[in-house]
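Changelog note: in this version the structure field was regenerated for every chain. One regenerated record is shown below for reference.
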Amino acid sequence: MNQAEYEVRGARVKASRRDLLYVSLFLFLVTWGTVLWGEKIHAQEMRLITSPWPPSNFLDEKGVPTGISVEVVEALKRKLEIATPVEVIPWARGYLIAKSEPNVLLFTAGRTQERLDMGFQFIGPVVMWTHSLMAKNGAMRQLKDLDAVRTQNLTVAGVRGSWQIRLLEKAGIQTVETESQQTGVKMLLAGRVDLWVTSRLQASAILQDLGLPADSVSSVYTVRQSPSYLMVSNGTNPQLAEAWRNAYEGLKQSDFFDKAAEKWSQELGIPLRFSPSDGFYADAPNKDTTAF
């Protein structure tokens, strides 16, 4: 090999080593960039907020968040390997936080056009709320519509300021506003009102809390069905939101929802079911008998 060939070969070796160094450096930066990006997403763990609304979300006697929806969120936390605590605060405050901050998961919430326009994303549905007019069990037959309530001069108890009360008043129905759902059912069973407006799931929790049989009341008219979701705030890191959505879809492929429905059926004393299109719902084998 002459001098010129030796020099050319040496230059090629140096170039090859330099290229290998550049490639190694590039791969190192990509790898660590991915790790750091993953850590950044992990550091941005979603703030988890719910409001007292049994049996979906509430505090148990020890002050620990529990309920049907809370159990779903806890299962998702295990899949995502995070330990962020669930905060139970009044709905108005939680909603304000979700409207003003990114990376917030507020649950459960209705999927409305107004909220979609505000940039909220939704995962679920988790729970189907069936809002009904409840009568004392055996006191009356099924009602055809709200006109039947009005023409029969029936009086309905409901929580003060609720959308249910506003809807009934708009329909010309006599209402009695109460400070709590517990007051409403007590008035119904005491014969002070003819009907009580609430959701079937919530009625089951309230009756249980008062030590009353689940069949103390029966649904005589369904006012509205409202599926509710895990609601993700506007501006949330897209990868973070997608991770939660994928975890929820993965949970649906397991037997988690069937087992949770069985557990809460026993807890509440009602037949609870889960449907991917509706979420958890109170099953009514015969709509003309019990409310649930």
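Spot check on this record: The mean pLDDT is 85. The CA atoms of residues 86 and 185 lie 30 Å apart.
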